[in-house]
């Protein structure tokens, strides 16, 4: 990721619900979606897999492109994804591995926090 880049992206749920968004920091934004940190569509529908993204030069370009893609019908969005990612794999599957290794376990349902002694 370089400074002053802007991104449009498509996230999907396991059931195939699609979400189109834009950001200037795709790594942080995708993390927020994956962790369901922001109330809204992606949290409600579980859109946690990054299937597609484009890099644009300006915020204005990214907002225009985002609106353009949001107007696409489902078939056209699928065609866009299939050009870059025909298997619909999560393009960000390995972006946060370092966080999992270096950070203590986060309290989630059924997973207790790791104690300071490491046990």
UniProtKB/TrEMBL annotation:
Residues 4-79 form the GIY-YIG domain. It holds the Pfam family GIY-YIG. InterPro entries: GIY-YIG_endonuc, GIY-YIG_endonuc_sf, UPF0213_domain. It comes from the Bacteria. Belongs to the UPF0213 family. This is GIY-YIG catalytic domain protein. It comes from Candidatus Magasanikbacteria bacterium GW2011_GWC2_37_14.
